[in-house]
Amino acid sequence: MRAVVLTGYGGLDKLEYRDDVPVPKPVAGEVLIAVAACGMNNTDVNTRTGWYSKVVTEGTTAAGGAGGFETITEDAATWGASSLAFPHVQGADVCGRIVAVGDGVDAARIGERIIVDGWLRDPDEPDNRDKAGYFGSERWGGFAEYTTAPAVNAFKVETDLGDAELATFPCSSSTAEHMLERSGLAAGQTVLITGASGGVGSALVQLAKRRGATVVALAGASKMAAVDELGADHVLPRDVEGLAGALAGATGRDTVDVVADVVGGDRFAELIERLARGGHYVTSGAIAGPIVALDLRTLYLNDLTLHGATVMPRYVFENLVGYIERGEIRPLLAKTFALADLAAAQAEFLEKKHIGNFVVLPG
User: Fold this and answer.
1) pTM over 0.90
2) Lower Cβ count inside 10 Å, N or C end of the chain?
3) DSSP annotation of 187
4) Count of helix runs (H) and strand runs (E) in the chain
5) Closest alpha carbon to 39 in 361, 363, 362, 359
């Protein structure tokens, strides 16, 4: 089959397009999926470059993402796991059809149109986060014509959306929903969302509105109109000066109940200062940089809670499938690329000029 194979940690040159990769075979409890489309995310770049290594302190920049980093350590592979074994096929956001099943899986599932829940849970301890892995990281993913996955991770979905549109949802939208679950965002509350034009950010806007929250979104000037169309109540420039005043002018108050942040970097301290007493900060990324400054007095004097959001309970993805089928969240497809052009797609992705999600098509 055709696939893009990651040959080691490093730059875009580590991605090799091949047409001689063996088609995987489903073992007991697994399904074989003919990939129709596979979304692309920051984690694909971060894993390739070894960005998760603690020695890397910069953000997911175009230069670092394209060329890799000079020094990484054994903790480089993925979301806390041990280093990868190469060659490796990445790609977490699979949409496709089941074409074969392993032992113990109902053959009636052959032909189902599915999307893949990326979290690989231990069958005996599904709630043990320490035993969780990720599709496209701890096992081969969807930057290929075929892939296998545990049958429990292949969710049937019934919708008129196209394959590329469906492939925008799995990682970005489930991450966004998990962030809102972790923070406890409720109807009537106000949430501040950074990076609102990206895959996770645009999903956060829609899912927060679905919960009945007031959404204040930060986005680049050229992307503000698109974020507004997603339903944000107020859209502010990402580099706005005087965030407190801007919030007060938009909402009538200079604080928010929740900050949902995928950016990090130098603005972290200002975001924390804008949380109301008892407020919640939640993050699932740090594209502007993972090392931040925190005044502990702000944290404890204002009774704040900080949340990381990575390994999610299964019900989050189950709920997401329902939202998709009922049309409660819509895709934001920026562009599609041929599988052979994956390296070029990642280079363009790193420029951050797009709105929404990039998707790779195997055909």
Assistant:
1) yes
2) C
3) T
4) 11, 17
5) 359
